[in-house]
Amino acid sequence: MLPRLARRGERANTITAPSRAEAEAELAAIGRAQARLVCWGEPDYPSALAAVEDAPPILTVLGETQLLQRPMIAVVGARNASANGRRFARELAAELGQGGLVVVSGMARGIDAAAHLGGLETGSIAVVAGGVDVVYLEENRGLYDALVRQGAIVAELPLGTEPQARHFPRRNRIISGMALGVVVVEAAARSGSLITARFALDQGREVFAVPGSPLDPRARGCNDLLRHGATLTETAADVLSQLAPQLVGAEPLRRVRSVAVPVPSPIPYAASGGGSEWKPATGSVEAMADADGLELILERLGPTPVAVDELVRQCQMSAAAVATLLLELELAGRVERHPGNLVSSR
Amino acid sequence: MLPRLARRGERANTITAPSRAEAEAELAAIGRAQARLVCWGEPDYPSALAAVEDAPPILTVLGETQLLQRPMIAVVGARNASANGRRFARELAAELGQGGLVVVSGMARGIDAAAHLGGLETGSIAVVAGGVDVVYLEENRGLYDALVRQGAIVAELPLGTEPQARHFPRRNRIISGMALGVVVVEAAARSGSLITARFALDQGREVFAVPGSPLDPRARGCNDLLRHGATLTETAADVLSQLAPQLVGAEPLRRVRSVAVPVPSPIPYAASGGGSEWKPATGSVEAMADADGLELILERLGPTPVAVDELVRQCQMSAAAVATLLLELELAGRVERHPGNLVSSR
């Protein structure tokens, strides 16, 4: 459907869908890598991430898929972390694990690696910027292997993708999106960890920051977060008490590994009987995807974000129709999404 | 009147008022000490303090009485402060002075002494727990003399009073009461500085706290204040911007004394090798690679790395002596080296 919708939204350059053969080759490669695809809407998809505005439609997962069902906490921070910072991150992650939280991070050097190590016993997930099979940092190969055995590696991008600079911010939104909150341990001003914290705020997640001396440039980012309302964090108890309301009724902690059972995935979009055409599996969206509808929406959009609900009300169309039209416009690069279900022209 | 009123109130033990002769003798002594009495309700009485519930009826002032008319900021903190903490307090006090505030503190070791030194050029007031003529801490005699010449010493208790433990909390209420706000730099949990912060809150004054690593016990009190709403303070600008509304219309900054007085060295007095004797630090101090030297260095080290040069300066030892002591401590696994000739505790 995508190429057709994009064309109707008057996108300049065309989108081409992969062929069936290409798709099948990719699925086979994923199988060989002992990875799995988990799609939005499936029970295995992390529930916190599913609620995020631009949740990835598909995740590739290597390792213990059932970890994705547990409540998670992101622990992130500086690559050039101090020895103290690393030790602190590791101990904090271990205690958060004891408290019932799976630790999510980005498998970078420094704080990330320390956090993964601390959480390894009780559950740790690395969200990587490239493919799940690409070990981005040779020094972390041991950690990677441990995570594949005991934890999980998660990626939005396909197998074999070498991560590039532009992939990292997108990856960061997944780290924060999977978690109930983000703990930032040592971060300079304008660092990647602050991007993750920013995403967390936009996604309505808790932000925790570990304070540090004003004389330590690696504390600059954390102190700034504290100044803007992040929860001051000295111990795991600071995090756990803040998240307590959201942890009530959460599955109690247990050792992660048992026998890994591959669960067949009910893919929400399934092939129709014989042909090459794909259609929605659950209900059909009767698109009023015509020029009039596009016109109606475009004329109501400006650079200031507006609520999609408001558009629905003003355009007197069904919510489904507006959603379809917005998707077309988005694919055409003509609208931009904002947190809180807001859209603007671009 | 007091004895009569107390009797009528059925007070158990009687109050006896001093005789006229005793009062006159005390006034004469105050005159000889070149001090002054300032009473509640007089124009010279600090206006912020006058508004406090249990403001002292009489203050004894030694030094520049007119400093009491200027807007003040209290800078207080740990006695066993780290080298970084002392440097920070001194620089912060100097910048707050440049910003038009007179620095008030308690003339204790560590942060207090550093704050007074930083504020000396632009105006600094010590509120002491005993009499204004009693130098409680022999190592601060140089600072005391400088404050008498360039700043002011203020006391609630009469001339000649030796301060006792119970006097300090009462003194702390005067420190916070004179100031628009209290900045706490390094304070352990349950320390005297937190009592001052507590008074500040009760008196409706601003509380500022300098964050620190959770691994540093000397940051515990400050981080706790931050958790409870104190303003996070990394620079003087954090304080000045918060107090800006109260500083509008305040007297512009001017040099306190027209005659330039030589400013004493950072730590004006240091221990000589022997023990009970003290002498000015300007002379050469023998290397003291003994328990005292180790103590001096350890006390100034925290988890946040500090420059070895700064240690040399603050400990008033030769670079070679400090290097030797650091080597010993490193071999003992008690200090850690960092790039850029920095060291920290471990």
**Overall mean confidence score, pLDDT of chain A:** 85
Show unreliable segments of chain A. Answer: 252-289
Oligomer: homodimer
Q: Return the structural class of chain A.
A: alpha/beta
Q: What is the helix tally of chain A? A: 13
Helix content of chain A: 25-40%
As laid out across the biggest beta sheet of chain A, the strand order is 1-2-6-5-4-3-7-8-9
| Biggest pleated-sheet summary of chain A | 9 strands, mixed
- The total beta strand count of chain A reads 14
How many whole angstroms does the radius of gyration of chain A measure? 21 Å
Write out key terms for the chains shown.
9-stranded mixed β-sheet, globular, 346 residues, 38% helix, homodimer, alpha/beta, 13 helices
How does this model look, in words?
The structure is a homodimer of 346-residue chains. The first copy, chain A, is α/β, with parallel strands linked by helices and 346 residues long. Helices cover 38% and strands 16% of the residues of chain A. Chain A contains 13 helices and 14 strands. The first copy, chain A, has helices spanning 2-8, 20-32, 47-50, 83-98, 111-119, 141-150, 167-178, 192-202, 220-227, 236-247, 291-300, 308-315, 319-331, and strands at 35-39, 58-63, 72-77, 102-105, 124-128, 152-155, 181-185, 206-209, 231-232, 269-271, 278-280, 306-307, 335-338, 342-345. In chain A, the strands form three sheets. The first copy, chain A, has a nine-stranded mixed sheet with strand order 1-2-6-5-4-3-7-8-9, with helices on both faces. Chain A has a three-stranded antiparallel sheet with strand order 12-14-13. In chain A, strand 3 (72-77), helix 4 and strand 4 form a beta-alpha-beta unit. In chain A, helix 1 (2-8) packs across helix 13 (319-331) and helix 4 (83-98) packs parallel to helix 5 (111-119). The two termini of chain A are 23 Å apart. Mean pLDDT of chain A is 85; it is low at 252-289.
